[in-house]
Amino acid sequence: MTERLLPRTADVVIVGGGILGLSVAWHLTRTGTVRVVVIERQSLASQASSRAAALLTLGRADARFTRLVQRTFAAIEELGTILGEPLPLHRYGSLSVTTTAEGRSGLQALIDGATRAGVSCETVGAADARRLVPWLAVTEDATCAFCPDDAFIDPYLLASAYGTAARTAGATIVSGTAVTGLSVASGGVSGVSTTAGTIAAPVVVIAAGAWSNLVAASLGASVPMAPVRSQYWITLPDARFPRQHPSVLLPDARTYTRPELDALLFGIREANSVSLDPRQLPDDASGYAFADDPDGTASLEEGLPALRRHLPALDDVGIRAYLTGFSTYTPDGLPAFGAAAGVRGLMFAGGCSGAGIAISGGVGLALAELALGRVPSLAIDPFRCDRFGAVDPFDPAFRARCAAARSNKRSG
Ligand SMILES: Cc1cc2nc3c(=O)[nH]c(=O)nc-3n(C[C@H](O)[C@H](O)[C@H](O)COP(=O)(O)OP(=O)(O)OC[C@H]3O[C@@H](n4cnc5c(N)ncnc54)[C@H](O)[C@@H]3O)c2cc1C
């Protein structure tokens, strides 16, 4: 990318071409009147967004969270119409199973939140749970809930669809170019410097995933989140794992599963999740191996005893792949997006706490509305960036709170 090809001015510059940046860009272009530029350092959607298990889980304790996910489902439908081909959405529902008191109250909170948002999510008996997912061992004392509208999707396809629709509607999307600094004038952001030149803009949205706090640091601004390891495994193909089964959420085993072609994908949240100082991140995190457990063996050994009780097939099915990457978590496990405190025109999209694919539509819509100076049509107050007060996102104690949020997460 040469400097000549980069616009010198824009109405909104978005830093980061992952799923959030591309969703914000598309939602902005839906208005048809703004000049939007997305700057991506690597290739589009090559970082966290292409590594997600991409469960689109509607059942959340907070109905306002569910509404962010509902907007993603609406966006998927709209994008299919715009692009002339429906996006492949794997909609087989999700089944949650627990036998603990804590799990039961968590499940009830999810059902209540879903109900408030108008989403179908109901308790089912153990026999029905076994019928829905025959490979799952469900004891008679288990409490189970089935949410038929939950789905999963190829996250790269969805991110690319946001990007293609945005570009078709006039957005400039540049990859292989890094944002190296932010400029300010009169207390407000006034543009960005990049490796291919500068762009003047009154609004800058930082959607740089695990690197967001590095981009914002020069202005003394921060988003209350930290990069935390997320990981999953994929079994060898096995006839016991058909393609069209519900996803399964097992809060007692800190595990989620979903079909992956003819195999099973399962993610385990360790008791002590690992967060990284953003300053130690490589610019390209694809293929990153964590020093404490490079191939995931230790995490798998920690999680297997609890998981085997639900998934006896693990005794004799092999593991084909292990995949890890960074999710950005906040201390309360809710996303953090919207205006940055103290710098007019600066906004963040992040802190998705393992749900950035699921809420990409809601975050994109809300930030587009904020960037245009409109009142957001979704309730976003619980997700404000300043809700924890002043935080140092590089502080190990703060990062430990973010890591704990992942370990304590029980939803999809
Ligand atoms: C193993 C795993 C499983 C997951 N499972 C799920 C799931 O089931 N459901 C779900 O909803 N979510 C899931 N997630 C979370 C989801 O992947 C993230 O929430 C989402 O991808 C975040 O998108 P993003 O755009 O913020 O980040 P990213 O995709 O990381 O995009 C940020 C982009 O910013 C770019 N960038 C950084 N610095 C600069 C700079 N200075 N200049 C220009 N560009 C820059 C980066 O190169 C990157 O492409 C999972 C994540 C992982 C790792």
UniProtKB/TrEMBL annotation:
Transmembrane segments: 12-29
Domain called FAD dependent oxidoreductase: residue spans: 11-370
EC number(s) reported in the record: 1.5.8.4
Translocase as UniProt keyword: no
Any Pfam family hit: DAO
One GO MF term attached to the UniProt entry: dimethylglycine dehydrogenase activity
GO cellular component: cytoplasm
Name of this protein: Glycine/D-amino acid oxidases (Deaminating)
Native species: Candidatus Defluviicoccus seviourii
